[in-house]
Structures are given as C-alpha cells and as structure tokens.
Amino acid sequence: MGLLEATFLGMAAVSAAAFDGWNDFNGVARVTNAAHEVLFQKEYGFLNIPYKDPMPADAIFPVASNTKLYVAVALYQLQEAGKVDLNASIADYLNAKDLKNFGMHGTRKYCPKVAGSSECQVVRFVDLLAMSSGIPNPPFRDYFLPYAGSIGLTVKLFINQDLLFIPGTEYDYSNSAFILAGYFVEKLSGKSLREYLQKHIISVLEQSSTEYDPYDYQLSMAGDRRKRVYEYYQYRDPKTHEIYATGECRDEFDLGTANGAGGVLSTVADEQLFYYTLFNFSKDAMGKPLLQDPRSLIDLVRPRMPTSPEQKGGYFWYAQGLLSLCNWSVDHEGCDVIPNIIGYEGGLMCVHTANLLDLHVHPAVMTSVYSSTVVFDVKKALVKKMQASKTGDFLEASDRWPQQMEVSKMAWKLHNEVLNQSKQREKMEWKVRGIILP
C-alpha cells in the first residue's frame, strides 16, 4: 500500500496473456508517437462513479511514483548548474543544521551504517536515484501523516535507521530515498520543491494541467480542479464479474509526507509531453530544454541496478527515477547506450498510472494507461465477514485479494496491439552523430 513499487518488471513479453479487458476500467488510455500523432485515445468509465460524470480525456491524476522522474531531472539540472556532484557522498552536502532538522541533535557528520557494523557507509546521490542506497522505507501509514511542515521532518522518520545493505550493491525500492532526494533539491536550489519543479520543469514544458502538490489542492490549483479524478475501491464477484460494492478511497488525498516520492498531479497528455521532450535523443536535442549536457540524459537512462537478482539481459533495470529495458535479447549481456524501452508505473492505494515509451520503433511510440479505481475479485460473503470483524485490518486483508486493472499489463497489451495495427515496427538504428557519449 502507499506508494507502490513499479510493476513493469518482467512484462516485456506480454501480448496475449490472460487479460480481463476494460469492462470495469475507470480511466484514460492514450497512445501517441513522437510525430505528435494520436494513434489511440479512449476514456473509460466515470470521473465520479456515484454521479456518473464521464471520464474526460484531460482528467487530472495523482501520478504517484512517476513524480520520481521529476525529482531526478531536478538533481541533474542542479548538477549542471555546478551545485552538486551526483557521484559524491550525500554526507558531504549535509551540515549540522540539516542533521538537527532530521532530529540528530549534536551529530556532526552523517554516518549511515549497516546493522551489526560500526563502519560508516557512503551513500551517493546516484545510489538514492537508483534504488540502491539501502535506506529503508518507513511504515506505509506514515505517508499519510498530516503536513509535517518541511521535508526534513519527514526525513526524520527514517534517516537514523540501519541501512539494509552496503550502498550500491543491491536493489531495494525505497520511497525514502526520493524523499531525501527531494530534500536536497530544496537545499541546493534554495526553493521549495514545489517552486523548483514549477519553474524549471513544468513551466518550461508548458504543462498546463500539471503541478506538484501532495496536499490535494491545499496550496493552489493547476488546470481545472473539477477534472481531478475521484478514487474508488470496487468489489467484484469472481465468477459473475458483477460489481456489488463501490467505496470511495479517501485516505491518500493528503499524501503530505511523501514529498519527492510522489506529489505530482498531471494528465496523460502532459506526462507524454514530459517524456517526448526529455527522452529526445536526436543530435540537436538530447533532453533540451530540460537538460543542457548530453551526458546528463545518458546518465539518467543508464541502467544501474537489475530489478531482480537472477536478471540478465532483456528485462528492466532501474536507472535514475525510471526503468530502462536494455534490449530484447535475453542472450545479450549488458545494455546499449540508449535503452529500447523506458517505463514506469505510479501506484497509490487506488490510482495507478503507467507510462511506456518505446524507442525501439521509429518514430518513438508512447502508451499511457491511467486508472482511478482498484477492483478486487472477492466473494461477497468474505467482504461482509471482514467488515463485521472486530479484529484484524481490513486494508491489509484486501491486499491479499486478487486485483484486476493491472495497468502495466494493460499498457503492454494496448501498446503491442496499436503497434501491430499501425505498422510502426520499423527498427531504428541508434547513432547519435556529433555527440560524445561517456
């Protein structure tokens, strides 16, 4: 629960896998290409289920972990501005005032340790962005605490805990790492994370319906607030597929403590604009105007950590705030400079937003599937039993029930179908002439 780990892992071969269809889907699906052609767009279900308000094409979703890419880009921008070396230890950029803000009074130097060891470990910025820092997550319910007043007070929840492993040696999905990364964006820029993202990313791209606001419009409002999706649980009979109960999902509206790990509100179109601008590997673009140095873009997408220990080639690796698919061949060790696929999924308790950018075809094609409803396949009698129970946790129990509307699988299936129908599977030769790549 809370901000969920991206679930693209191992989905590259999905084309005709078991798939329930779109009958109970509430959300938006859109496929476009880099030539600005809309290959597919459809809105499903309702913005507000009880009132039957149709889902608009420009519905605004909390994109959850898709926020992490914004934070990663911000840190690369700050590195280009000479304010940080992302290969350096984060301890070199923390002073006594920072540590006091984290509740570490009297501490002069940040000294993270693995349990059972007295040795100070080095956590680099690139370790934070690659999910290889070893910094553990706080309990998921802590994400829903009231507005703490600063990201530093949120960092206080986890910064003093033992590392899970030596930084840079393993992969472990850490929202805490990106909360800390968000803190550094504020510290290095002298601006709030909201102000920085608005000025240096959102306004630059002219994303008219996007803003960073983890407090559900308590700060201000982007676009039309009436188009912000409502979020729901639905319960469906496993045999008849009848929806027999709908409940509003309200807990996550004030995701106040998850600064940096989540907090961006956006539309499908605005997110696709972000991807197409940033991941433009043509000679004269290379991430401009968001990034100025071609090496920043290459470092951003460079596969860093395999997302499973047994993984070799052909699957997703964690890069910097995103997932990169190295290549299609499972026999190929290592990765090309430019990945075939860039993708990510943001997950909250009820909203899931999947982005899939295919650089393997020409022109590049991007598929986005955003959902505002979680559907559980569970017998009515079991739900009634849990509701009547005087002990136990209903939400934790629901976590064990089969869920439909897996947007990552839906995105892969739609993506493959559209590519086949539009005959856009022409292979592309990756040669960025005139650019010296590290």
From TrEMBL:
State the UniProt keywords alphabetically: Carboxypeptidase, Hydrolase, Protease, Signal
InterPro entries, per database record = Beta-lactam-related, Beta-lactam/transpept-like, Diverse_Enzym_Activities
Gene3D superfamilies recorded: DD-peptidase/beta-lactamase superfamily
Q: Which Pfam families match?
A: Beta-lactamase
Gene Ontology molecular functions: carboxypeptidase activity
Q: Report the leader peptide range.
A: 1-18
Q: Which residues form the Beta-lactamase-related domain?
A: 25-318
Protein name (database record): D-alanyl-D-alanine carboxypeptidase (DD-carboxypeptidase) (DD-CPase)
Q: Which organism is it from?
A: Durusdinium trenchii
